Amino acid sequence: VTGxxxxxxxxxxxxxxxGARHRSRPRGEAERERADPLVVALCAALAPDRVRTGPVxxxxxxxxxxxxxxxxxxxxxxxLDATELRSCVRLSAEHGxxxxxxxxxxxxxxxxxxxxxxxxxxxxRMNQVLEVDLANGIAWVEPGxxxxxxxxHLAPYGVHFAPDPSSQQSCTIxxxxxxxxxxxxxxxxxxxxxxxxxxxxVLPDGSLALxxxxxxxxxxxxxxxxxxxxxxxMGIASRIAVRLTTNPPAVRTILAAFSTVADAAATVSGIxxxxxxxxxxxxxxxxxxxxxxxxxxxxxxxxxxxVLLVEVDGLPDGVAEECRLIEEVARRHDARSxxxxxxxxxxxxxxxxxxxxFGAVARLKPNYYLHDTVIPRTRLVEVLTRxxxxxxxxxxxxxxxxxxxxxxxxxxxxxxxxxxxxxxRVHHAGAAIVAASxxxxxxxxxxxGIGLEKREFMRWQFTDDDLWAQDAVRRAFDxxxxxxxxxxLPTGASCADMVHLAxxxxxxxxxxxxxxxxxxxx
Amino acid sequence: xxxxxxAEFVDETRGADPITCAGxxxxxxxxxxxxxxxxxxxxxxxxxxYEPAEMTVRLGAGTSLDELHxxxxxxxxxxxxxxxxxxxVGGVLAVGHDGVRTRRVGRVRDVLLQAxxxxxxxxxxxxxGPTVKNVTGFxxxxxLVGSLGALGFVGEVIVRTRPLPRATRWLAGVADPLPVAExxxxxxxxxxxxxxxxxxxxxxxxxVEAQASVLAALGLAAAAPPDMSRFAxxxxxxxxxxxxxxxxxxxxxxxxxVGVGVVHTASSWGRHDALAPSVARLQQRIKTAFDPTNRLxxxxxxxxxxxxxx
Lengths: 522, 310
Fold this sequence. Notes:
Order of helices and strands of chain B: HEEEEHEHHEEHEEEHEEHEEHEEH
Low-confidence stretches of chain A: 1-24, 498-522
Mean pLDDT of chain A: 89
Low-confidence stretches of chain B: 304-310
Largest sheet of chain B: 7 strands, antiparallel
Mean pLDDT of chain B: 94
Shape of chain A: globular
Oligomer: heterodimer
Number of strands of chain B: 16
Strand content of chain A: 15-25%
Number of strands of chain A: 20
Helix content of chain B: 10-25%
Strand order of the largest sheet of chain B: 13-10-12-11-15-16-14
Shape of chain B: globular
Structural class of chain A: alpha+beta
Largest interface: A-B, 89 and 80 residues
Helix content of chain A: 25-40%
């Protein structure tokens, strides 16, 4: 369970996430409830044991899987169904309190980090697959259904949910919707938005709305499309109609090893130039291959500078033809080995290596900061070279494991947070990587979202007018700014305690860098 | 890569008067009549840059689909956009209706990567980004597709391309569409008029051949595509509602996109549905924020699309 493992690792010493659910309530909690009428109202609407204000829950739910630790949860709620979810939102709104939706907390951009003591609404107990409707090609699911659980649930029907983020063993469909999540197979199949047909959402004022429906041309604006990827700032999905993707009749996975990163990158472009769009093209550089191989023994070549994991699927003849073309392109670019997984066991082992990459790095250093930018895929070599330089300039170790097919970089900076001053270096390097990606014609995020992590970088990609337009649609959904406030858009002042803590952090590391003084990476 | 010069287009849209944005007018009826007479403006046309290896193309929204696809074909690519002769890229995006191959090539709403949009007050904004994958900020491109030009006029776009299929083949025969659809893996289209089922296969030659022989066993043989010109009206239902309705309709009076939910008929199958109040409120707030004086395509977004009475 990679996702959970890294999640727990981020929590440091606090590993009571599951045990905490069943503990008896500390004595002080009853008094706190009396002091806060919203807690009383929530207890009445849900059940007292699913409305938490104790220090353990507050600590747990003040963070997600990002490195951001400035959040603070006010009240943590665990609704069991749409009615309870709606009560949580409605009561928060009535009490003028902000709320933050949270799935499994695997987000890497701080999207679920609560700013300013809000109500944290945890959807993980709303985990039912409500209906599988094969005739309409959809399934209705609750937001807390775990991504991989959904695909397992669908397996007997010969269909699956295509988005497959690396955290799929723990991340939820609601979280996928909030972040418009991706994954390796998004190259051919598209990100979450392409796989969400309709959404029933609780709007920030507590009302229900159905966005999109099962008709291909729904009425009016595509509010469904706007809601997907809105990172919890437009409400909370209570039911989601996901599109079912037919399992391909044939699948082949190819592992190609190269002596240079440039050869691997040229192979990526070469494959696309052949008119082949594989289901996935993943690249791993030598440091990550070494870490993965030591961890899962998948048979990755540890002496190569880079490997490509390419998957093709579809009807058998096309799959065979694409395999042949890909091998040819790889050989043309001096691949030192090209290996097609002989059977399903070998194929799954290769993928296990890729998907446990983030778990594997825990063996190198206790902490990592995973970045997420997109660049034009023809500029992979140039930007990767720059990424290595940036890491060296900041005396950091960087590993690269990413979705090369769509140019979605994931530089992974590994470090030991106990080392004095290290976080400043990590953040500086991260900002430099973002800047290099934008300079190459790229964008801030391909699948992790903006959250708190990159909201100040938004000004690097968008003008004030662009941001005005984005804020205009947000305000249409949430005029009172109570749904996950302070996220996505660079609004600085709306997360006062974070700004305060950021200032303290700056004082601690003693930086006089003007970019950092602007709080740009917070 | 230089962006298109939108200055002239921006100048044209300037003013306080109601304006409409015209492409090829091939789907001008969608969204109903404009509620007031409007001055007509036209977005710029022409391909700005095309990078086959990126599978993206940047062009003026007024570029015809024919011109775009002619250029892309030179590099073995196309897009998921479909339209009648003369249709423009901007028009097809503004209407947002998928083409007949949607089962294989995906939705129109997933094609638009970036748009430069002239707002009602003359400001020009950029929505989305130039890369094939992007979740930076709120997804304004999705809400622009199908917005009927009611939020802003799109001047320049970057759209996603896709490889041209190696082989394409239409087949037809008298058969029930459901077993036909179930026998196939990702057909580009399965169409039914109550008597005949048409199938469009796309892919590698030998796969198309193999799927065609599966269809031969079900009574389908190579054929011309169906004549869609006699069906002027498009209605949209859930795939199951569509099939239930189609089974009761007069054979030959419709052409149903099986598994999609779109039906083409001579006269409407449907009635007008109002938006749910909570959804209508959201839509109105967005419209008001972008176009407070309702000068962009007035009336278009007010009209509701056609559902069906069962």
